[in-house]
Design brief:
Strand order of the largest sheet of chain A: 5-6-7-8-9-10-11-12
CATH class of the largest domain in chain B: Mainly Beta
CATH superfamily of the largest domain in chain B: YVTN repeat-like/Quinoprotein amine dehydrogenase
Number of strands of chain B: 29
Largest sheet of chain A: 8 strands, antiparallel, barrel
Oligomer: heterodimer
Number of helices of chain A: 13
Strand content of chain A: 35-45%
Radius of gyration of chain B: 20 Å
Distance between the termini of chain A: 35 Å
Helix content of chain B: under 10%
Distance between the termini of chain B: 28 Å
Number of helices of chain B: 2
Chain lengths: 536, 360
């Protein structure tokens, strides 16, 4: 038996024991929409609902509660535990108000949440934070280390968190990657000091941030973004303050070709002065936006996603509409030598002659200060490489790239996970994208061409996957690179009646003058997660 | 309707043998299932003779520990916080120990067993103090209960215990017991004094990695021998070979041994030692037969689905597999062919429950 198949067996065994052991774990409800009622809270609200157990030792200092700082979702998860494990009967509006108040007064500075933002943004298939040798197994095997990084507390309070884990989940020490070591000793004697030094309660960053007045986000914004599998988008965002860091927002979005995508209304609450949480509907689909305001208050960046399928979403950037001229995005980015293509330039204060550099000629088809549609012809003699795009006196480096041949396809994510559905749980899809590159001369970075139009297929990852016919059972990849897993539960057609899990290679193919360029990624199709907490 | 039937069945259970002049002992299989079932199965008749509903089981009947005389079964219920003792003749709860009390929540991770005289239960406890706004995990301990303590049993002796114990096995002489965890520990039953500790983590097999074991089915019948698979790698780097070995603990002599029988080629959850010819049978998605005299895998067959637990007829003439789903299957130990498959009434999930065999 090959080593890889032994790994496979181990993984199964580990997964099995994992499920077996977590029987006692509390389930999660879906994240509540956080932006529908404008709350107002102060210390008195915390006193009313929390001080019964979290004794107020000195005015405003509540035991345990005052010794931690976290993200809004972190507060939401903790309070969920207070309700469902400690039987706190808390009305929704009081809960929302307390989450807001504690996020503002015991939150994270932008620099503190930066590393773990991908978890707040629910980005699928992200490699976890690298936090040393022992933490991945000790703390990063049930949830992400991003969850750990999104908290600030001192050593003694990290220790109390370890007690909560083992007290609440007594099987923890018996599980794979815990029973192979003196888990309790390491977790109680070594890690608290280490975590306390890495993520301490009192920081310069937070002191600086917490006393800054919150920026008013009201006004007009210019939006651009990219949704994997769907493509780029541009548009506008109008934001109106409704009081208490709540806003209504209206997005008006279109594709680069000018096709309307949607007129979207969102209810927004801003936590900690920069954490934008929006809830909206695109068509009939509930969606959220998790964005962060830059420290200068002029730019929002983050991700939108479907509420019920957080893996489906895209990158969003919004820039203040007022401001100096700038080019934000050119779509598409890659321009092939010897061809003419239509491109969209999105920016602010755009005015003047458009150029894409040597060997190109540009014809503007339609122009406004924020959007220019142009036809760009690339001569046979043009040199491959990155291009600055200039509009009048505004220039932005590396906005486009000229290429003759794609040298490499880089499929992202390189390692993806999809999950079969089952019961009331929907399958989790996996979206792949193929990024093109030109390999450059030695010492120079490869030239990025952006997402390419490719054909998709899946192949067995290894001999075991061939034998188990994973390609047949595990699911289908769509033309847009989205993998949709097969149905959940035992499949009587499979050996041992096993479920539709699989081990697959995802292959992107690009036809270049009759020759196929391949790029590939690894896809694991596995069983459902029974709970999807707000911070994975 | 269901409880009435269960009671009726419970009353008739074992009835037949009282009628015969020289009762031949029969094998009965015990298994638990969600949410509160304790089934008694007449092995030869392939029949469920009793479907007992354990009071306040709260989810799952996990560990099953029969008394040595086969009259009672002690089951771990209430999410590992309570032990319920059931009279198998009446189906009534005759013993109950709720391990948690006051501000202390106590779990036992499958580490409950009974002394050979049937008088005491040995329980490895994991206590946590729940304060107003914090948990305080306490040091684990062994608690000894009298089996005649009734429905509000409290421990009669308590001793300090190591962490991460997953199995308690009494020695056949009744004077000491083993606890399986990081090491194989032995304790004096009366005083709680640690009598010894043998390597599991550092098992002293040159060239082998630290072994991985997770056994929480204390099946030692019919030989008073406990066997379980142990996983390790032999060698390092490119030449490393994954090894499955059998750990064997003889509860009569106290002898502990490890035997290799294959480079890892299947997942095995549990094992049982047969009274015939030094054979050991193991199970997961496959049923395997190992000859421990020669240290070789003799035969292996695919099962229709995964079974977590295995046991064997007292005379070794039949192998039983169960756990996971809602059936118990009977296999020929020579051919590994299925002889029968018994679906539990209502098809409740046995999940991680233990398959035990009593003789009545």
């Amino acid at each position: 038996m090959s080593l890889s198949s032994i790994d496979r067996l181990r993984r199964w065994r580990r997964a099995m024991l994992g499920c077996v052991m977590l029987l006692g774990a509390a389930g999660w409800l879906a994240a509540p929409a956080m932006a529908d009622a404008p709350p107002a809270a102060d210390q008195q609200t915390v006193r009313t609902w929390c001080a019964g157990c979290h004794t107020e030792d000195t005015p405003g200092q509540f035991q345990r509660l005052s010794a931690v700082r976290k993200s809004p979702e972190g507060w939401q998860m903790t309070i969920f535990r207070m309700q469902h494990v400690h039987n706190l009967a808390l009305p929704d509006d009081a809960r929302d108000a307390i989450v807001k108040f504690l996020s503002d007064t015991q939150g994270l500075a932008p620099s503190e949440s930066a590393a773990g933002r991908f978890a707040l943004e629910r980005r699928p298939n992200m490699p976890d934070l690298k936090l040393g040798d022992d933490l991945p197994d000790m703390c990063g095997r049930c949830h992400s280390l991003a969850r750990v990084s999104l908290q600030r507390r001192d050593a003694d309070t990290w220790l109390r968190l370890v007690h909560m884990h083992v007290g609440q989940f007594p099987s923890l020490e018996y599980q794979a990657s815990a029973r192979d070591r003196y888990w309790w000793d390491i977790a109680t004697k070594q890690l608290p000091a280490k975590l306390g030094a890495m993520f301490p309660f009192d920081t310069q960053a937070w002191r600086g941030w917490m006393n800054r007045p919150h920026a008013d986000l009201g006004g007009e914004w210019l939006v651009h973004g990219h949704s994997p599998g769907k493509g780029d988008f541009v548009g506008t965002l109008s934001v109106k303050a409704t009081g208490g860091d709540n806003y209504t927002a209206h997005y008006s979005l279109q594709s680069p070709e000018g096709k309307p995508i949607g007129e979207i209304d969102s209810l927004v609450r801003v936590y900690t002065g920069y954490e934008w949480r929006g809830s909206s509907k695109v068509g009939s689909v509930d969606t959220h936006e998790v964005l962060a305001l830059s420290e200068d208050g002029r730019r929002l960046t983050g991700r939108w996603f479907e509420a019920a399928h957080t893996e489906v979403g895209g990158d969003v950037v919004a820039e203040r509409a007022e401001g100096p001229a700038a080019v934000f995005m050119v779509s598409p980015r890659a321009l092939k030598i010897g061809t003419t293509s239509e491109v969209l330039i999105a920016g602010r204060g755009l005015n003047g002659t458009v150029t894409f550099g040597n060997g190109t000629s540009v014809k503007v088809l339609k122009a406004s200060p924020t959007l220019i549609r142009a036809s760009v012809k690339v001569n046979d003699k043009a040199a491959p490489g990155p291009r600055a795009v200039t509009v009048g006196r505004t220039s932005a480096a590396d906005m486009a790239a000229v290429y003759d041949k794609v040298d490499r396809l880089d499929v992202q994510p390189a390692y993806g996970i999809a999950r079969v559905g089952g019961g009331h749980i929907d399958p989790v899809t996996a979206q792949f994208e193929a990024f093109g590159f030109i390999e450059s001369q030695a010492g120079q970075a490869p030239v990025a061409l952006g997402p390419m139009n490719v054909s998709w297929k899946v192949e067995p990852y290894n001999a075991d996957a061939v034998k188990a016919q994973d390609v047949k059972f595990a699911g289908r990849i769509q033309p847009d690179g989205s993998f949709v897993p097969g149905p959940g539960g035992p499949n009587p057609e499979r050996v041992f009646g096993t479920n539709n899990a699989g081990d697959l290679t995802v292959v992107a193919g690009l036809d270049q003058e009759g020759k196929e360029l391949r790029g590939q990624a690894h896809l694991i199709v596995t069983v459902q997660r029974w709970n999807t907490p707000p911070i994975y | 309707m269901r409880p009435l039937i269960a009671c009726a069945l419970a009353l008739s259970l074992f009835g037949s043998q009282n009628l015969s002049a020289r009762p031949a002992l029969r094998d009965y299989i015990l298994t638990g299932a969600k949410p509160d079932h304790l089934f008694v199965i007449d092995a030869a008749a392939r029949k469920v003779t009793s479907d007992i509903r354990v009071p306040d089981a709260n989810g799952i009947v996990g560990l099953v520990v029969p008394s040595p005389d086969g009259k009672r079964a002690y089951v771990l219920v209430n999410r590992m916080e309570s032990i319920s003792g059931i009279d198998l003749d009446t189906g009534k709860q005759v013993f109950r120990a709720n391990l948690s009390s006051g501000d202390e929540v106590v779990h036992s991770f499958f580490s409950v067993n009974i002394t050979p005289d049937g008088r005491e239960l040995i329980v490895h406890e994991l206590p946590t103090k729940r304060g107003l706004n914090e948990y305080h995990v306490q040091e684990p301990r062994f608690a000894i209960f009298k089996t005649d303590a009734g429905l509000d049993a409290k421990p009669v002796r308590v001793f300090p215990a190591p962490r991460r114990v997953h199995l308690v096995l009494p020695k056949a002489d009744g004077k000491s017991f083993y606890a399986l965890g990081f090491q194989l520990f032995e304790y004096d039953l009366a005083t709680g004094k640690k009598l010894g500790e043998r390597g599991i983590r550092n098992w002293g097999r040159p060239g082998y990695s630290t072994p991985d074991m997770l056994a929480f089915w204390p099946v030692t019948e019919p030989l008073d021998v406990f066997v379980t698979p142990v996983y390790s790698t032999l060698g390092t780097g490119k030449d490393a070979i994954a090894k499955t070995s059998l750990m064997k603990l003889d509860l009569k002599s106290g002898a502990l041994s490890y035997q290799d029988f294959e480079d890892t080629s299947a997942v095995i959850f549990s094992a049982v030692a047969s009274p015939r010819n030094g054979e050991v049978f193991t199970v997961y998605t496959q049923l395997s037969k190992i000859d421990t005299n020669k240290g070789v895998l003799v035969d292996r067959v695919n099962l229709p689905h995964t079974f977590y637990t295995i046991n064997i007829a007292s005379d070794g003439h039949e192998v039983f597999v169960g756990g996971t789903m809602c059936d118990v299957a009977f296999y020929d130990p020579d051919t590994l062919k299925q002889r029968a498959n018994l679906k539990l009434p209502g098809c409740p999930d046995q999940s991680i429950s233990t398959l035990r065999v009593i003789r009545r």
